[in-house]
Specification:
about 150 residues; mainly alpha; about 0% strand
């Protein structure tokens, strides 16, 4: 038996001025798959953006802390310098306040050492202040009027 071959028929294109729209070739559209090539799902993008922004925030916070530590180290260095200077000045004051040093300086300036030293008694402060002394009465011209001057 002979094989039957199907016959294909071709249609002629529609004339340009016929007014009928040209026939569009249609194809079946498949729904997009979850793992389509070239596109990542939105939750993955959001997770990556969140991780990136979190790391950026951590880096900014770290830079802020490092700047504060540098400032603190500079202030600590200034404090150490000031404390060392204060210690040196305290030693110098102690040397100058030494009684032997005071006597030596006085003798170099032509003063003589006293033969007798009298210590003054310690006066303890009272809890209540003393009232101010009243002024002496004025001359006879103001007392003759019978009124006291106002303050």
């Amino acid at each position: 038996m002979a094989a039957v071959t199907p016959v294909r028929t071709r249609r002629a294109p529609a004339p340009a001025g016929s007014g009928a729209p040209a026939r569009v070739r249609l194809s079946i559209v498949r729904p997009p798959s979850r793992h389509s090539h070239g596109r990542w799902p939105r939750p993955l993008w959001l997770a990556l953006a969140f991780v990136f922004l979190s790391l950026l925030a951590v880096g900014a916070a770290h830079a802020y802390l490092v700047a504060g530590q540098v400032r603190l180290a500079h202030l600590q260095q200034q404090l150490d310098t000031a404390q060392n200077s204060e210690r040196g000045l305290e030693v110098q004051v102690a040397r100058l306040e030494d009684p032997a040093q005071v006597v030596t300086q006085g003798e170099q300036q032509g003063l003589s050492a006293p033969t007798q030293v009298t210590d003054l008694p310690l006066v303890a402060p009272t809890s209540a202040p003393r009232p101010a002394p009243r002024p002496a009465p004025r001359s006879s011209s103001s007392s003759s009027s019978g009124t006291r001057p106002r303050r």
